[in-house]
UniProtKB/TrEMBL annotation:
Pfam families: Cyclophil_like. This is Cyclophilin TM1367-like domain-containing protein. Residues 4-119 form the Cyclophilin TM1367-like domain. The lineage of its organism: Archaea, Methanobacteriati, Methanobacteriota, Stenosarchaea group, Halobacteria.
């Protein structure tokens, strides 16, 4: 059982909130469900989610499966592999992000081509 559900087109992924950015997490939870047309940037998807949240424990290098919010650009992001900003195989954001969650299994995203419709909802 997960406490967050992420759907990318017709793929449903289980995810878990983490407490590295509690103010950002609470703001996102209040807005659920969230959805939008995501843009792909390497092995990252991101879409607009305008929130007023401060930077919290920000990092550019994030773990595989990270769910993060970019306050400067008002984007919610999913990372599953290298991006154009990566220096190796690690996922790397273009600028510091607040990591708020983790996808349990990102293997289904490896076949994704282009952008996608993404939806975040409370887990089941």
């Amino acid at each position: 059982m997960s406490d967050l559900s992420v759907t990318v087109d017709d793929i449903t992924l289980e995810a878990t909130w983490i407490d590295d950015a509690p103010e950002t997490r609470r703001a996102l939870e209040r807005e659920l469900p969230l959805e939008g047309e995501a843009v792909r940037w390497g092995d990252e998807l991101y879409f607009d989610v305008p929130l007023e949240v401060p930077p919290e424990n920000q990092s550019e290098e994030v773990p595989v499966g990270a769910i993060a919010y970019w306050p400067t650009g008002s984007k919610l992001c999913l990372f599953w592999g290298p991006t154009p900003a990566s220096r190796g195989e690690e996922p790397r954001a273009t600028a510091p992000v607040n990591v708020v969650g983790r996808l349990e299994d990102v293997s289904a995203l490896s076949d994704l081509e282009g952008g996608a419709r993404v939806r975040f909802d409370a887990g089941k």
